[in-house]
Automatic annotation (TrEMBL):
The lineage of its organism: Eukaryota, Viridiplantae, Streptophyta, Embryophyta, Tracheophyta. This is Protein NRT1/ PTR FAMILY 5.6-like. Residues 1-21 are annotated as: Disordered. Keywords: Membrane, Transmembrane, Transmembrane helix. Belongs to the major facilitator superfamily. Proton-dependent oligopeptide transporter (POT/PTR) (TC 2.A.17) family. It comes from Pyrus ussuriensis x Pyrus communis. It holds the Pfam family PTR2. The keyword Transmembrane helix applies. SUPFAM superfamilies: MFS general substrate transporter. It is found in: Membrane. GO terms for cellular component: membrane. Gene3D superfamilies: MFS general substrate transporter like domains.
Amino acid sequence: MEQEMEKRKRTSSTASSEANTIRDEDNWVHDSSLDHKGRVPLRASTGVWKASLFIMTIEFSERLSYFGIATNLITYLTQLLHQDIKTAAKNVNFWAGVTTIMPLIGGFLADAYAGRFSMVLFSSLIYLMGLSILTMSQFIPSLKPCSTKMCQQPRKLHEVVLFIALYFISVGTGGHKPCLQSFGADQFDDDHTEERKKKMSYFNWWNFALCCGLFLGVTAIVYVQDYVSWGVADLVLTITMAFTIVTFYMGKALYRYRIPEGSPLVPMLQVLVAAIRKRKLPNPSNPALLFEVPESHKQSQGRLLLHTNRLRFLDKAAIIEENENTSWDQKHNPWRLTTLTRVEEVKLILNMIPIWLTSLTFGLCVAQASTFFVKQAAIMDLHITDNFKIPPASIYSLGAIAMLISVTVYDKILVPILRKATGNERGINILTRIGIGMIFSVVAMSAAALVETKRLKADRPQSMSVFWLAPQYIILGFGDGFTLVGLQEYFYDQVPDSMRSLGIAFYLSVIAVGSFISSFLIIVVDHVTGKGGNSWFGKDLNSSRLDNFYWLLAAMNGLNLCVYGLLARGYTYKNVERRVVVADDTSLSNGIDQSMA
């Protein structure tokens, strides 16, 4: 009898201990993040929406500034600095390209050395410096374009200062964009079921805030630029950015922080070197024989990846040879033996390259919205009523509205329905979402070509309402809601955990390279068509054939979509082994999660 009582006590004690462990897991965040004092974060007082809202405010301000400048920059260059349309379009595309390629540098530095919070704060101050110089170039007499109101011969000094300010903004964006969005996503614990679902909505609502900034940038800010003063508009942007930087810093105590883990390139190089060294060894029949972090050290090593059957050659880097030191406590040579997780991380990056390449034509379409679309609007009837007309760049707001509608409908209506229908937490896979947006881009370019053909055939092209451009903006906006948001989620989710700032930078590089390709394509098409004496890009739009250029883009996107579809069908997603904290019944389960995004 006494033995039975003792057994029950031990069982009760064990159950109580397990319950305490479960409560501890649910109360504290064990995902390698820390609070602002360097401790394990308390779940109730850090992260999720209360932290990410502070982060979203600075994103709103940055997008307000960027789109307030970018969408009307071609107008400024052609009307105030008297650049021809070809030169102005190339300058805008080049600046936009540099601005969106710089995050590759900023993302790398943040992940490897600086940390996301520090990089966001530092780069935001550089961004503020760029806006301040831009403002000074409009108010300091010697830096103004001209001494007179009507500027026939703008000062060269003003042009130099203008581009210095713009490229300060580019550098600021380089650290700001990749780190801010990934820092916001870091506020949600992947191992907590409720927080993981909120994280899936986070990317949608992030883009909602982005579109709000975009909408005000291309309406209110552009209106002030065109009808009040460029200087006043720049001053408003500078003050707004300064205010949101302070707001961002005020949320410091609520954030969850990730410690930088050193250069992510070194472990990748180690995998390649180790695989080459062991190239003559046969792959083991059972992946369990490959070297991996031992069970006793898993808690301290973050999330581990499970084996996939792609790129089996790289598995050789984790093959254990005879007499090879495999003790975790005694340091092994990482240039000869790497863990399976490191091997799978390299596979993730290599698998992304084809997806990245087939996303570039979408970036090519995005580049047209702030260049040729705006120039089309400038020579059309901008009147809404007899007494009120909108600035040309404000037509861009239709794309922002379409994206807002697309993101809201997707998150609140489509995802719940699709979750029930497919059993997928996300509703549909990420690559499917991206592909749907690519279909919209083909339709948008076709619509743009048809509208431009009609405009060129009109007896009085300038009497055509600017709202004829609405279909191409709205369709492309819907496409952005699928493809751009999908690309953000894809590159954040599918990169190794230590490279998430770089992941967002990879997404931004799609738009950057798209802008560079657009500039290059303009040069090539102008050269080829100019040989016949009728270049598609004349001195003005009425002597150009933009309709042919848009048909070319539609055809390129259509062909690219076919290739993308084949790649997406055979894609292998990130395969994560994780401990899942189920919030509803506060239970723990060891699980394998294939991030079918």
